[in-house]
Specification:
mainly alpha
């Protein structure tokens, strides 16, 4: 992976975190999601929270250990069924299963 533009990694993670956060808020306000889905969203947000956040500028510098953590995260995401050129499933059952696989 080309780490000369590390800000792309932190920016994309921030995008995911924001989307999960919005889903949690909307679910709590509307009551439209089952408790199991809400718990999966909470667990995913908590799992991703410790990773380095985006600075908002294209000057993010990652230490060797932070790069290693992101490489491991990418590996775990692929193993859980998320990633490029992997099957696309839009159901919540699939989402819950993938979160469970990631958190193992």
């Amino acid at each position: 992976m080309n780490w000369s533009q590390a800000h792309h990694v932190t920016e994309k993670l921030d995008d995911v975190m924001e989307s999960v956060s919005i889903a949690i808020v909307v679910a709590s306000r509307t009551g439209q999601l089952e408790d199991e889905v809400g718990a999966a969203l909470d667990n995913l947000y908590s799992y991703l929270s410790p990773y380095k956040k985006d600075s908002g500028y294209p000057n993010t510098v990652l230490s060797d250990s932070e790069r290693d953590e992101f490489v491991e995260l990418a590996k775990r995401l692929r193993e859980a069924g998320w990633g490029m050129k992997q099957g696309y499933h839009s159901g919540f059952d699939s989402f819950i299963e993938k979160v469970g696989g990631l958190l193992q």
